[in-house]
Fold this sequence. Notes:
The structure holds 2 protein chains of 2 kinds.
Chain A: H1 5-11, H2 14-19, H3 24-39, H4 58-62, H5 64-71, H6 74-78, H7 83-110, H8 114-118, H9 126-160, H10 162-193, H11 196-224, H12 244-256, H13 262-293, H14 309-318, H15 322-337, H16 339-364, H17 386-394, H18 404-408, H19 415-445, H20 450-471, H21 486-494, H22 496-509, H23 515-534
Chain B: E1 3-14, E2 17-28, E3 32-36, H1 43-51, E4 58-63, E5 66-67, E6 79-82, H2 94-104, H3 109-122, H4 138-150, E7 156-160, H5 168-183, E8 187-191, H6 195-201, E9 204-209, E10 212-217, H7 219-225, H8 231-238, H9 244-256
Parallel strand pairs in B: 3-8, 3-9, 6-7, 7-8
Antiparallel strand pairs in B: 1-2, 1-4, 4-5, 9-10
Helix pairs in contact in B: 2-3
Amino acid sequence: MTDFKTLQLLDKFRIVFVKMGIDYEMMRKILHIKLTMDERKVPTLFNQARKKDDQKYGYIKSLWIYTLFGLVLIPFMGFGQNFLFQMSISFAMIIFLIMTSLISDFSSVLLDVRDRSILSTKPIAARTINAAKFMHIFIYLTYLTIALTAIPLLVGLFNQGIAFFILTVLELILINLFIVALTAILYIVILRFFDGEKLKDVINYVQIGLSLMLMIGYQVLIRSFEFVNFDMVVAFHWWSIFLIPMWFAAPYELLLNGDKSLFTVLYCIFAIVIPLLSIWLYVKLIPTFERNLQKLLNTSKSKKEKNNRLRALLLKIICRTNEERAFYRFASLMMKQEREFKLKVYPSLGFSFIIPFIFMFTFSRHEDVDYSVSMGYLNIYFSMLIIPSAVLMLGHSEKYKAAWIYKVFPLKDYTELKKGSLKAFLIKLYIPLYIFLSIIFCFIYGTRIIPDLLTVLVASCIYTVICYISIGSKIPFTKPYNEIGDAQGWKALLLFIPLGMLAGLHFLIAQIFFGSIIYLIALIIMNYILWKLVFKRTQ
Amino acid sequence: MEEILTITNLTKSYGSKEILKGIDLHVSRGEIIGYIGPNGAGKSTTVKIILGIEGEYGGEIKLFGENIGQDRVDYKRRIGYVPEIADVYDNLTGYEYLTFIGQLYGLELEIAADKSKTLMELFGVGEAYHARISSYSKGMRQKLLIIASLIHNPDLLFLDEPINGLDANSVMIFKEILTQLAAQGKTIFYSSHIMDVVEKISSRIILLYDGKIAADGTFAELQAENTEGTLEKIFNQLTGFHDHKEIGEKFVSIVQEVR
């Protein structure tokens, strides 16, 4: 174990901690261990395809994406004097990014229950443990904030002067304190009313949301610059008192533009007092928090399973054998409940929903589209981009070790299982997305496209099987996620070719009269044969 | 007595390391076998080979009178297994996991659901039936695994440290279950390091040491063959271990060095 530069820097502030009654040596030791452990894990945004050995400074290396996002801040922070508007936008972005990153990557730190059994049983003052916890998060937030704001800040320093620079740095510190306290208080509230599993679900959904936002944000960002209008004047309203970024933008007006109106002064006071107040509240609530953390270990409340006769009947039609049904049920549950799977697949699911529209509007922006004859609805094929990665993920699970049960079962081969899980994916994840898209498309293009939409549905079944064969037939949920290598990623990319072919053929055949219906019938037959062939029992 | 399991000259190696060096074993219906041995003696390996989790072994294994060759799987329907360290898909609820297991053993969903619900209730964990397994305590998890191993009414049971984490009352229930199962003609392989439990419940004890069977017989027979009294002492003697006193003393002296 090597010493950390960060900790050596922290040593310089030793006296501050000692004054606060914290056992600095002890806190340093705890932080050292925590940072060592963190070096061995990778943050959520980047765990898709990373090699195991390439993990040193994994977190710092992963910060480049935030630096990239930070570039967007340059026009807002570097130029112009309309501070209230510009800085509100900047701080809104900064707060959003830091807070989501805190929730997705550092919730485990805030909610670490191991601390209780490992550290709290040792002769260390609670104050020291809590300080270590806080500093642990604070160190990372500092990295993150620097990565995000360093370049815009430098531009600001040159263009707006030293006063702007110092003010921004001070405000960023306040913002970070505020975010940590706010997140912790949020958790305290959730834990007060719900149990641990619910909280883990909330965190999971925030992570999913973050990934999705970044995916879409990237698309929107490229197009957004033309909309931005720097002359926008922001007026104070009574309700804008709840717009947190505005509080932090107000000091610029006060100090740099000399605006001494009531609202500006009020906001400035908010910007300083509320972060400090929230930290004070957080410190007060820590004991309650620690007590409630215990809930994370408790048995969660039971929920009853609803029995639905119609669903059972449908299931019997979809899956013929008992084994297949068992696996269909199992796979649907895993897709619904495994947080790691959701984190990897659900953002792309959301993205698949958006992307047909992005393409539709990109292509149709410059010309008038007659929706009654347009073939723009074929953009729905883009929603199938989810299929390769989802089929790939189906082979993997966080709990891959639990797969020992398959060997203990009296099963001749695993075709039924694979078939069941593919059907579960289609019915539980893809088809709801497809139906939703179809309804919207019917509104736009009219009901005349229903035969085409049916064709797309059958094509998606065929495409799923194609993906399944190409990716290699694995038994579902039996491999760890980190085994997904670059090769697999390339395969998923190559799989866009057959998708393009399916869509292209559709486009060509639809040109002839009744073409879509002929194509539909051909695909149904092909689909039937394909499923029969691929899932032939090996005996 | 009907012979359930016959193992002839079973060998297994990992690379150049020989784990099992020729095991011969005959097990009859209704026996409760205490399967003991030091860490790394090959107990779990034997069980895993029988279950088909480990392949590529030497020798022959016959289960229910039939050789378990390469492609035979039907015999697994008659086996239940509680592994020592069991990973489960713990993002599922108890209900979801147990019915899944039951269905894969060929049970209908409703039957598996009824059965697992009643069994969970009898074991005192009925209230956790619809809760996620990840939130279970160690004892609840163990009970779930026991139920999962029995849900399809198997004829042969392999239990590896099954009472790990169970409270004293649950242990009593479990011991009674084992006795009843054996009386119904089920055969049970019981692996554990807790010697006094093995001593009490087993009708026959097999001690594995260094990849070979070092002792095989009822507790009374073992006592007669060896000079020592309890199973623990017999275990020490057969595995040639006598240094516990010395090591213990040394250990404590190092502990005291701290200050």
